[in-house]
Amino acid sequence: VHLVESGGGLAQPGGSLGLSCAASGDTVNIIDMGWYRQVPGKQRELVATISRGGNTDYADSVKGRATISRDNSENTVYLQMASLKPEDTGVYYCKAEYGSTWYSGDFWGQGTQVTVSS
Questions:
Q1: Among candidates 3, 16, 46, which has minimal Cα distance to 114?
Q2: In sequence order, what DSSP letters do the residues of 59-84 get, joined into one string?
Q3: CA 51, CA 41: separation in Å to the nearest integer?
Q4: How many CB atoms lie within 10 A of CB 42?
Q5: What is the pLDDT along the chain (118 residues), one digit of tens a residue?
């Protein structure tokens, strides 16, 4: 499975942004997908996840400001964030949880930088 993120960049505090992550390869065995973010010196942290059936989960820090969605027909997961804060700055990574009879594990994208600053 290969994941390619797009979107991100520089955004103003209080503004919004959208990220997308396109999966290719053996996508039929992708289970959950999600977004994580990381800042220098800190561990990668969960932002939001979505199951194949559309069940979602959000970090407390983004609840009410983030929306994760998924298009299974296009193997793409999206993240929309509003009311951005400087602490939303970080490298955002897409993750796909994979499960098949021969392999189970996580695949990660290369990451996309999000900077929230005036």
A1: 16
A2: -TTTTTTEEEEEETTTTEEEEEE-S-
A3: 29
A4: 9
A5: 999 999 999 999 999 999 999 999 999 999 999 999 999 899 999 999 999 999 999 999 999 999 999 998 999 999 999 999 999 999 999 999 999 998 899 999 999 999 999 9
Report residue 39 as tokens: 């800042």
The predicted structure's pLDDT at residue 31: 93
Strand 9-11 with 112-116, pairing: parallel
Strand ranges (E), the chain: 2-7, 9-11, 17-24, 30-38, 45-50, 56-58, 66-71, 76-81, 90-99, 104-108, 112-116
Residue of 16, 10, 117, 8 whose CA lies nearest to 66: 16
CA-CA-CA-CA dihedral for 72, 74, 38, 100, to nearest 10: 50
The Cα 105–Cα 96 span in angstroms is: 8
